[in-house]
Amino acid sequence: MRIRLSDHFTYKKLLLFTLPSIMMMIFTSIYGVVDGFFVSNFAGKNAFAAVNFIIPFLSIWGGLGFMFGAGGSALIGKTLGEGDHEKANRIFSLITYVSLILGGILAVFCFIFLEPIAVSIGATPEILEDCLLYGRIIALTLPAYILQNEFQAFSIAAEKPQFGLIVSLITGCGNILLDALCVGILGWGIAGAAIATAISQFAGGIVFLIYFFRPNDSLLHLSKTTMDNKALIKTVSNGVSELVNNVSMCVVSMLYNLQLIRYAGEDGVAAYGVLMYVSFIFYAIFIGFTAGSSPIISYHFGAQNHTELKNLRKKIIRLIAIFSVLMLFGGELLAQPFSYLYVGYDADLFTLTCRGFYIFSFSFLFGGMAVLGSAFFTALNDGMTSAIISFLRTMVFQIGAVLLLPLWFGIDGIWFSLVLAEIAAFFLTIFYIVIKRKKYHY
User: Fold this and answer.
1) pTM across the whole model
2) Are 200 and 142 in contact (CB under 8 A)?
3) Does residue 141 contact residue 200 with C-beta atoms inside 8 Å?
């Protein structure tokens, strides 16, 4: 059954349409998760801490892909809803070419200047060499990584979420096998983990490029285009919240690492790494669901179908609430198994990680609504509201909490800080959804 953006969506149809996107995000998150598992168990906790330390900086640039993908698919979906398919393809092609060029420039920059950057953000002598080795290998595939992130959104707008899922499944499974080979069997350590991820990211970006260049039956095709500053500006303004969210999360992760080194040393960074890896998978469900539903919202917004917008708003919020409760229970139940999987070889580190996990899991109960708020307003082409939610959630609520709570609660304050920040972002999102209803007729 082919589901189209123009359809009326029941719960079943909404879940079926967004499921490939959810799976895409889960398998995309596997890159870091699998690297972390193999590095921790085969190269040791210092190498594991090094990977955790440098990944946030590299992820900042991957956020450009989410910005172009979210902002571009919102504009493309709106244009398709207005009935102008030729213009939608021109915008799609322009965004793809611009992001590819930008990715190449950033790859060179990161490769050359990674050492002073790593030192400036607090890398200790014990982990600096591993940070540079891992980071420079990953930097080489930044153009493909950016493309892979944005094509996850574009494949949904093209009514081809299943193709995006297939690519993510192949590259995610490939990364697992390559990590097992390069790190587990060949013993290449942190370099092997970086090579495995770099190959998988490169393959993911290139496959999407080839598919959209070749004749296909999707709504979007790569072709000749013209410079359209207005479309680029609108894409960036629509998707800037995704970039803000990604950059902010990376900055917050760096700050968490600095606080954890202060309060618990390298063990704190390693424990936080476990929490981040597992949260990637949990939050991937929220992100995948909202990314999968966003083009539908954009299409009906462009078509001025207010009845369907109201239907989508109600169903999406209800499903987010169900996911949130399930993930809270999942986090509590899986705290010990996941902690053991990563750091079971060190009793003290295992205890520290489990305690952090039990506290941290409560963030899942509130985090889904904040993710929805940002994506929902991006889909409505309201980049400003989306950016406000993302900025306050991370750069204000999370940073404020992680700086203040440890003063009173020590390391427990670091784990509690994300929970408190997500509660604040939850109520902020509810506030904006309520006051914007009349403007957008949802």
Assistant:
1) 0.72
2) no
3) no
Dig out the tokens for 219 from the structure: 């709504």
Q: Is the dihedral of CA 9, 13, 15, 16 positive or negative?
A: negative
CA distances from 375 to 29, 127, 240 (A): 18, 36, 11
**Residue tagged 């709106």 (tokens):** 78
Q: What six digits make up the tokens of 275? A: 């929490």
- Check if the beta carbon of residue 285 is closer than 8 Å to that of residue 22: yes
What Rg do the C-alpha atoms of the chain give, in angstroms? 21
Estimate to the nearest angstrom the gap between the alpha carbon of 228 and the chain centroid: 27
Length, in residues, of the chain: 442
Find where tokens 């080979």 sit: 181
- The string of pLDDT tens digits covering residues 96-122 is 999 999 999 999 999 999 999 888 877
Query: Which of these, 45, 38, 102, 8, lies nearest to 345 by C-alpha position?
Result: 45
CA distance 63 to 243: 5
Q: Are the C-beta atoms of 205 and 143 separated by less than 8 Å?
A: yes
pLDDT, tens digit, 9 for 90 and up, residues 294-350: 889 988 988 889 999 999 999 999 999 999 999 999 989 988 888 887 777 778 888
HEC states along the chain?
CCCCCCCCCCHHHHHHHHHHHHHHHHHHHHHHHHHHHHHHHHHCHHHHHHHHHHHHHHHHHHHHHHHHHHHHHHHHHHHHHCCCHHHHHHHHHHHHHHHHHHHHHHHHHHHHHHHHHHHHCCCCHHHHHHHHHHHHHHHCCHHHHHHHHHHHHHHHHCCCHHHHHHHHHHHHHHHHHHHHHHHHHCCCHHHHHHHHHHHHHHHHHHHHHHHHHCCCCCCCCCCCCCCCHHHHHHHHHHHHHHHHHHHHHHHHHHHHHHHHHHHHHHHHHHHHHHHHHHHHHHHHHHHHHHHHHHHHHHHHHHCCCHHHHHHHHHHHHHHHHHHHHHHHHHHHHHHHHHHHHHHCCCHHHHHHHHHHHHHHHHHHHHHHHHHHHHHHHHHCCCHHHHHHHHHHHHHHHHHHHHHHHHHHHCHHHHHHHHHHHHHHHHHHHHHHHHHCHHHHCC
Domain ranges of the chain: 11-440
Among 71, 134, 65, CA closest to 100: 65
332-354 burial by CB neighbour count: b if 16+ within 10 A, else e? eebbeebbebbbeebeebbebbb
> Low-confidence residues of the chain, pLDDT below 50?
none
